[in-house]
Every structure is written in C-alpha cells, then in structure tokens.
Design brief:
This protein is mostly beta strands. The chain has four helices and twelve strands; from the N terminus they run βββββαβββαβββαβα. The longest helix is centred in the last third of the chain and has 12 residues. It is globular, with a radius of gyration of 18 Å. Its EC number is 2.5.1.9.
C-alpha cells in the first residue's frame, strides 16, 4: 500500500525493451534507496512496480505490456522525471489517503492556470470514470494524493501549492500531458454499491 505522499523525483536512465516486457532503469536520490531490497514495491508515477535489481541508487523495474497499455509508463524515455513513493510500512503516518498503486485510467492535462503562489491544473478523463469524481473528494494523480476542486462533466481541477510543485513533477507539467489516475477506493465502492441498488438511474417526472 501507499499513502499518496510523493517522496521525491526520480529520473529514468534507460528503458530496455524486450518481447512483452520493458525494463526501466531509474535513478533515485541517494538517500531514498537505503534499505531497499529485491522484491520491494515502489510506486512510479503512481504505478506499483517491483524492484528486480539494484546498482547503487539505480533501481530496475519490469513492466508487462498490460501495465504499459493501461498507464503512462509506456511513454517514458531516458531523461524523463517521475514521482516516486516507497511502500508504506506499519506505523507510518498516512498523510494522504490509502492507495494500491493500481492505475484505473489516464487523464490529460487540458489547461494550466497560474494565479499568484499556486497552480491550478485541469484534467479530462474518460467519461466512464467521471462518475467517481466529486468536488472535495480524493484522487491520486501520478501517485500524489490530491483533493479535487471543481468538476465539470468529465473534467476536474486540482489546486497545487508551491511545496507540491517543488516536491513532484507537477512543477513542470504541460498541456496535453497524460497522467495516471487512481480513483479513491472508498468513493468507488460507494458509487458502485448505489448503482447496484438502482440509485444511479435518472429521476423520472
């Protein structure tokens, strides 16, 4: 499990393609790989991956074609930066909200507003997932636990403070960029339960 509190920015050093598999060689800040072991889980842009090899502060991760298809990892290339979070341990503070590291869908940044001292990002996601998006609800974007601001159809925004921009890759976000989305599990459970009970049907006059 993860908390959605991004622990830093890592850099993709190499992507090794093989039939049905891609291996990512990712360079981490040196002080962030202490105690890591083969088989450990690390969220890369919110996607839970398993450490398969370590060389100093470079970690290796394998991703199957299905993972590459469902997430933005297939677009990563050497030099790209990613958010990362190592798996939470029992007793860790949950500063964001509990995440599984299993990506539900991707969204596209459609607008970036820069009022004084913060940034507002607008995202568009597939209509299928819009039913889980509520103002003031939780969402994980590229592994960062964030609070949803406004919602307009299948578009929503989040407001980012300078510390979030500093500690994550959102400080270099661009329009048209795709991001990984993990829907809040509690929200999904409530919405799906109500749907099974018939409460998602439009009211009739």
């Amino acid at each position: 499990m993860f908390t959605g509190i991004v622990q830093g920015i890592a850099r993709v050093e190499n992507v090794i393609a093989a039939p049905g598999l891609s291996t990512f060689v990712i360079e981490f800040p040196e002080d962030r790989v202490q105690g890591v072991t083969i088989g450990a889980s690390v969220a890369i842009n919110g996607t839970c991956l398993t450490v398969t090899r370590q060389e100093g502060h470079r970690l290796y991760f394998d991703a199957m074609q299905e993972t590459l298809r469902l997430t933005t990892l297939g677009d990563l290339k050497p030099g790209d930066e990613t958010n990362f979070e190592r798996a939470a341990r029992i007793g860790d503070e949950i500063g964001g909200h509990l995440l599984s590291g299993h990506i539900h869908t991707t969204a596209t940044i459609v607008d970036i507003l820069r009022p004084e001292n913060n940034v507002t990002l607008w995202f568009e996601l597939p209509e299928t997932w819009a039913k889980y998006i509520f103002p003031k609800g939780y969402i994980a974007i590229n592994g960062a636990s964030l609070t949803i601001g406004e919602v307009e159809g299948n578009r929503f925004n989040v407001h980012l403070i300078p510390e979030t921009l500093r500690a994550t890759t959102f400080g270099k976000a661009t329009k048209g960029q795709k991001v990984n989305i993990e829907i809040d599990s509690q929200t999904q459970t409530i919405v799906d339960t109500l749907a099974r009970l018939g409460y998602d049907r439009p009211a009739t006059v």
